Amino acid sequence: MTMDEVLRIQGLTCRPGRGDSLALGPLDLTVRRGEVVLVAGRSGAGKSLLARCLAGLVPRVFPGKVAGRVELSGTPLASLAPWEVARRLGMVFQDPRAGSFGDTVADEVAFGPENLGLPPAEVARRVDAALEATGLSAFGASPLEALSLGRWQASAVAAALAMRPAVLVLDEPTSMLDAAAARRVLDTLARLADEDGVAAIILEHRTRLVAERATRLVVLERGRVVYDGDPGRVRDGAFCRRFGLRPSENPAEAGQAPELAGGGTDPVARAESVAFAYHGGVPVLADLDLEVPAGGATLVTGPNGSGKTTLLNLMAGLLRPGGGRVLYRQGGVWVRGPRRGDVGFVGQAPDYVFRHRTVQAEFASWHGGDAEAEEAAEAALARLDLAGLRARHPLSLSEGEKRRLAIASALAARPRLLALDEPSVGFDGTHLDALLAAMNHYARTGGAVLLASNDPDVLDRGWPCRVNLATVTERQSATRHSKSEMVYPA
Amino acid sequence: MAELATSKPTAATGRDSPGVGVKVLLLLCLAAAALIVDGWWKLAVLLAASAAWAGAVAARPAPRRPGTLVWAGVGVGGLALLLGAWGLPVRPYAGPVARLVILLVAGRAFALSAPAAEWRRALDRARLPNRMVLLFATAHTLTGVLASEVRLAREGMRIRSAAGADENRPGLPTRLWRAGVAFCARLFARSDRLAAVAETRAFARPGRRWTACARPPQALDLLAGASCVAATAVLCLV
Predict the structure, then answer these.
(1) Cα distance between residue B128 and residue A147, in whole Å
(2) Per residue in B26-65, pLDDT tens?
(3) Of A30, A79, A140, A318, which is the most exposed, with the fewest CB atoms less than 10 Å away?
(4) Which residues on B lie below 8 Å from A55 (Cβ)?
(5) Mind telling me how many Å the CA of A402 is from chain B's nearest CA?
(6) Residues contacting A314, CB < 8 A, separation 6+
(7) Which one of A91, A101, A170, A418 would you mutate to disrupt binding with B, by most B Cβ within 10 Å of its Cβ?
(8) Contact A95/A155 with Cβ under 8 angstroms?
(9) Do A95 and B193 touch (CB under 8 A)?
(10) What is the ipTM of this complex?
(11) Does the CB of A140 have a partner CB in chain B at under 8 Å?
(12) Quick one: closest CA in B to A365, which residue?
């Protein structure tokens, strides 16, 4: 191992769970100081498992059998105590809500450096720098639970940065961030790599965005490295299709995006002057009007914290508006809604709707059971590439697979409005196209779709109906959200 | 920035709110009194004190507030006291139920009003053994995890219902059983993820963490602490 090598993997294999099947490896990889490595690949290719193995979490926390050798700065991983690994390798997990130990952003970021026994002044310096790097300086005193998921994810990145490790492993760190926040995080990683020699391994589906800052691309397929080289290859369409990566260029500009259903004039649901604030705090939405037409897909977009998730929760009846009302059309009459069968909602934590022991049983519980419904449901299952997972337990699926199952289930229930919150998280290129095709098909057969996202690979699809939400700060100059801020088909 | 490292008061804690030490003292006093005192009116006083604490937490503009279950608990405790005081046949059970409710409501109010980091630092400052600090900190974090799991599970039920899933609805026991099993499975999975995050943040490192500069006890803290002890003593001795 040379002085420049901060991570060396030799013959790494991993069999998760009871160790029945090989899911990762044999894998050899060397990462040097200052490298920014983008690790891409299809859903289920073994990216998250690789991250867990590198942090020594398999089999210590997650069951599985690991073989091979991993060295961190020349020291075998197997000989290091967990806290010694933490000092050398920082980790950001997919779901930031899964592990928070502080109540406020600053406390959360300070938690790691505190555990390392650093002096208070140094902890303060690191917290300050990490918050600034992730654009959270103004949110240090904010309770984590009051943040949008995007900002929460940024705080998880800040917490890892504050540990100042030699290697940072980030599992989809930008999946819920808007483009500006994602670029800020990636710029920070690139700067840390340039100035401090910190190596970053970024496991991502948003390849176009990350490739702008990456110095190297590694593609995994079925747990093995199938490409290791120039990150510029993510702009090669044939290369992306071959490995199931996200589109190489803006699909709308390239004329590759299918025409999305714009919808008719017959609205299914409506928000009238809706306002909402969490626990009497700063208003997230104020005086918002929205109409969702049947037979079309409406995109809700806006920066992190602009209220996209809140809006979808209000439409799904999970939150009650502080002002105004949410109405659903029932036989020509507007009634406060939603009622049973009105809305299928897939939120940012999709697995909380699962109740059954197999994918097959779970899926079957969502559709009516008559022959026509069953046929349509089966088509949705196949379209989202879940047919081969019927015997699996829903909670044993990867994050992307869980989301696909939740979406397929919601489609099978045939609600009048399908509301999807950041549905593309954990989706590779093939599955993203399948999702958009399934959603488009649903809209064209009379359903209404309301989708919130700030994923550039979703936004760049030539959406005919688009609602742009602004943050509270941006809204201070505007009096209200109104239909003038929505773009409807001509 | 140095101020931040010394546990800068946040919107959630409030600059003038009593320190975590007073809250610990209040919790201990309520718990001790709930286990020691006898008599319906004394238990009623303790229940009212716990409910007032939960009410004070609910009144502040913070994202974590006592949920419906806490208020339902207060209602059950109050009902138990009333039935016990009237001498109804449930009298043998009324006392233990009321005591349990007092402990649960006070515990929840404490968990919501003492920020995790402040609580951890207070234990660290008290020079407790590292293992105990880790144990208490994990338990404190888990209460929040449990509360959020309950909220998300309820949302999951509402989402299923709104979409019209389970058209051929099984009986209530079957639905409750399935929901319970799914809840437990997710809770275990989330505990694993929490443990993973803890490991990657050097949680189990032996030796002391840095000790935040302790805020010197304020006059208000001393007054509040002394009041807690005095009130408990009076309640136990009268």
Answers:
(1) 33
(2) 888 888 898 888 888 888 889 999 999 888 888 776 656 6
(3) A79
(4) 196, 199-200
(5) 13
(6) A271, A274, A276, A285, A320, A321, A326
(7) A101
(8) no
(9) yes
(10) 0.83
(11) yes
(12) B166
How many angstroms separate the CA atoms of A276 and A281, rounded?
9
Q: Sheet of A323-330: strands edge to edge?
A: A283-293, A267-277, A323-330, A333-336
- Residues pairing with A291 in the sheet: A270
Taking the domains of chain B in order of start, what are their residue ranges? 19-114+216-238, 129-207
Kindly tell me if the per-residue pLDDT of A490 is higher than 60: no
| Residue A392 forms contact with B (CB below 8 Å) | no
User: Chain B interface, mutation test: which of A60, A62, A93, A115, most B Cβ atoms within 10 Å?
Assistant: A115
Contact A279 B61 (CB under 8 A): yes
CA distance A443 to A293: 10
Q: Which residues of B touch A97 (CB under 8 A)?
A: 148
Predicted TM-score (pTM) of the model is 0.82
Pairing of strands A64-72, A36-41: unpaired
pLDDT per residue over A378-435, tens digit each? Answer: 887 888 888 888 889 998 888 889 999 999 999 988 899 999 999 999 899 999 989 9
Q: Kindly list the distances between the CA atom of residue A311 and the CA atoms of A184, B196, B206, in Å, as whole numbers in the listed order.
A: 26, 32, 46
Structural domains of chain A, ranges and CATH numbers in brackets: 5-243 (3.40.50.300), 267-487 (3.40.50.300)
CB A398 within 8 A of CB B189: no
Q: A267-277 and A5-16 as β-strands: parallel, antiparallel, unpaired?
A: unpaired
Q: Which residue of B has its CA nearest to A137?
A: B1
Record the tokens describing residue B182, joined without a space: 């799914």
